[in-house]
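Following up on my earlier thread - several people asked me to post the actual chain instead of describing it. Fair enough. Here it is, all 362 residues.
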Amino acid sequence: MLLIFLSALALAYLGLMLYLYIGLLSANHLPLATSHSPFVSIIIPMRNEELFIQATLNALSSQKYAGKWEVIVVNDRSTDKCPEIARGFCETHPNFSVIDIPQDSPQIASPKKRALNTGFLAAKGEFLLIADADCVPPPSWLSSMAACYANGASVVQGSKANNGGKRFLHAYQRLETLGFTLIEASGFNRNKPILASSASIGYSKELFFKCGGFEGLYDLASGDDDMLIHRMAKIEGTKFAYNWDASSIMPTAPVDSWKALLQQRARWGSNGAKYESKAYSAFLFCIYAFFVCLFILPWLDWQLFLYFFSIKLFSDFLLLYRGALRLKSVKLLWCLPLVELIQIPLFTAAVPLGMLGLYKWK
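Reply from S.P.:
Thanks for posting it. Predicted structure:
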């Protein structure tokens, strides 16, 4: 009976990897040059980012874009010096501005969504482009993302990559981020998004408010990315595009401890049962069950564990290799077996911690 159950879970996992792999093969082109340069509003939610915000603002001011654009930094009740840094920068950059969330605003589960919505309400552009306050976008990021939108996309997901040093912890995050990135790319290629990342994403301002925005999601710790695009996908005529331009990959900062990584993954996993699509939540549960079984198997039967682990490792490698070729990241695959072994207990622990709310965030 156990073998039948494990085989069913492994088959479901293999099916997912095949689905994602085929999605990466779907026709999807690099952003095309266009004469239309939409008005772009870049929204940066910021909370206690004094170590990063100066570099982020410098990088944004160096964007090469022919159209009209603005940057709105939303200060979410920061207690460090980042508001002063941002306001000082705005004094010499007229298309940059800062909006403050009042310090006495009520505490909610997802203040980031409130900050984003505040920025969206103030935005003048037709295309809302979002990045994190600790990201340093390359000079072509704005023009590349705007070109995807100008070519007819309603929602544009940009590529991202963890930076960091030579520590294995950072290598682990780089490879796992590549995996998440490819899941995003496959879904966007099919016009049926699965995951999304707010570290580099843009969408029509009209579409955001038409789908209801973050209404009903403020009490969830995350969901400003994939939960939102699932709503957008229900709007007839919504077109999704993945930006494959390697020169516009958004670098993101890794966390610097395994404890912090577990906390981050717990936050990400906190909404697994709260998606509006119950079928999607059920599918996520099946994938999680496969991880739990792989975590338990070494104590029951080593040979059985190696068999099913090999299935997961092989299917993950095929997907990652295909995507890494396109994003020029093949060298990240050197640590895949070790990353897979660590990912099993990490993911197994993170999901229940997240669902029980046993994690800390800013």
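The chain has a mean pLDDT of 92. That should answer part of your original question.
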